[in-house]
Design brief:
Number of domains: 1
Number of helices: 5
Radius of gyration: 18 Å
Order of helices and strands: HHEHEHEEHEEE
CATH topology: Rossmann fold
Strand content: 15-25%
Oligomer: single chain
CATH superfamily: Vaccinia Virus protein VP39
Largest sheet: 7 strands, mixed
Number of strands: 7
Length: 187
């Protein structure tokens, strides 16, 4: 019995690890948890964006659900929607937020989400994902939508506001979409 349990446990852990590696290879974005201080910075910038009480806020690539929980706490009357393609982090996020009435999670590639109702979008991705996300937002969100990025910014776009993180932690940037082009300093 003990040996059978060990085999099942090893198979489960191996499956989770392989799934995480597969979706990391597919998206080129690891499922990295957001630190509380980073989530606090996202919340601070979204508060500066003067969202309505009933705002619709998307977390693109919501991972393990940390930002969803912080957004729920900061904006209790908002609709907080997470999208995550990787099954295990999505499941963990769902478990962590299932009791929160204003949080919903979709297990899908966020490029396949209809975000036309978004008042705000947040993301913590990787540099390789940012050009495609920029094009997606150009086509998918209304003008004036607040977009907050953690650590990795949109090249060629100027943020409205930034908030520097302590130590090695990255900065957070608020854009108002469509974000204007960054000035050319090549001279």
């Amino acid at each position: 019995m003990h040996q059978a349990f060990s085999v099942v446990l090893l198979a489960a852990v191996s499956s989770v690890c392989l799934s995480l590696l597969f979706f990391h290879a597919l998206t080129r974005v690891p499922s990295w948890p957001l630190a509380k201080s980073e989530a606090a910075d996202v919340v601070a910038l979204l508060r500066d964006a003067n969202l309505s009480r009933s705002a619709v806020i998307y977390d693109m690539g919501c991972g393990w659900g940390s930002l969803l929980i912080a957004l729920n706490k900061a904006f209790p009357d908002a609709q907080v929607k997470g999208a995550e393609i990787s099954p295990f982090p999505c499941f963990v996020a769902w478990v962590r937020t299932r009791h929160l009435r204003n949080v919903s999670i979709m297990r899908r590639n966020f490029y396949n989400c209809d975000v036309a109702d978004a008042d705000a979008v947040a993301c913590y991705l990787m540099p390789s994902a940012m050009p495609r996300l920029s094009k997606f937002l150009d086509e998918a969100v209304r003008p004036g939508t607040a977009v907050v990025t953690v650590t990795f910014w949109f090249r060629g776009r100027s943020p409205k506001t930034t908030k520097d993180g302590p130590g090695l932690r990255g900065a957070v940037a608020l854009y108002v979409w469509p974000a204007s082009s960054a000035p050319d300093h090549t001279g």
